[in-house]
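Feature request, filed as a ticket because there's no other form

It would be nice if the structure record came with a short human-readable summary line next to the tokens. Right now we just get the raw output. Example of a typical job, pasted below so the devs can see what we mean:
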Amino acid sequence: MAAITSGIIAVGSMAMSFVQAAEQKEAADTANDEAARLMADARKRAEVDNFEELSIPTESYEAEFEANLAADQQAVQALQEGDARSLAAGVGRIGAQQAEEAEDTRIAMGQDLYNLDVTKAESRDAANQQLIALDVGQAGDQAELGSDLLTASSESFSQGVSSLGAGLGAFGDTQDAYSSEKRKNKKKKK
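Raw output as currently delivered:
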């Protein structure tokens, strides 16, 4: 009777081990799904480039060009009201001044555009570095999770196989005990 009881316990233990292995796999699958969802959300947020839509407002530069042109036109008009010699000498100075003012404005605008391009490039690079870090972290997490899952599943399966062996051994002992009892009964009948 004790052998039958231990056999039943062994079979129950085996069944529990296999159920635990299945539950561990299901829990790992659920964790993987949640991790994948969170990773997709993080990736979406990292891919958003807040600087991409920025631009330099060129209206202020255009207004400066127009203001310089208007000032130069007023200066030429004032010179025209004077004598011809003053006009000839003044127009050259106004032209040089106009070219210098326009060049200063173009340089300032070019520097601002360059700075914006650098900021955008740095933003894209930072987002790229974050995505790389996410990928490396996710790969490490997946490798660790896979290893943990394999270890837990193997342990549960091994426990199940051991329990099966113990159960078969107990049933074998029962069979031996039954056979011994049967032989004793046969000898008594003779």
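Something like this underneath would help us a lot:
The chain has three helices and no strands.
Residues 26 and 123 are 40 Å apart (CA to CA).
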